[in-house]
Specification:
It is elongated, with a radius of gyration of 22 Å. The chain has 74 residues and is mainly alpha-helical. The protein is built from two helices and no strands. The longest helix has 25 residues, at 48-72. It starts with 19 loop residues before the first helix and ends with a helix.
Length: 74
């Protein structure tokens, strides 16, 4: 059906999902942080305990942040 002068143009499609470049950078940062942590634990075994404790707290906080963001978008 042809568009008439009384009908507004269709809205532009909204971008969905996350930017692939952002996901790539986030993945690269995660790999680098995990690699640096592994390196520190292997080279300095005395730091393995404190690094593990910080990693455990960071994973709990990241999980809570992820849940909060997921619930906010609903």
């Amino acid at each position: 059906m042809p568009a008439t002068a009384n009908q507004p143009p269709p809205p532009d499609p909204q971008p969905s999902g996350t930017d692939p470049v952002l996901l790539l950078v986030l993945g690269l940062v995660v790999v680098l942080v995990l690699g640096a942590t592994l390196y520190l634990c292997l080279v300095h075994p005395s730091l393995a305990g404190p690094i593990g404790a910080v990693g455990g707290m960071a994973s709990a906080l990241a999980t809570a942040l992820g849940v909060a963001i997921a619930l906010r978008r609903r």
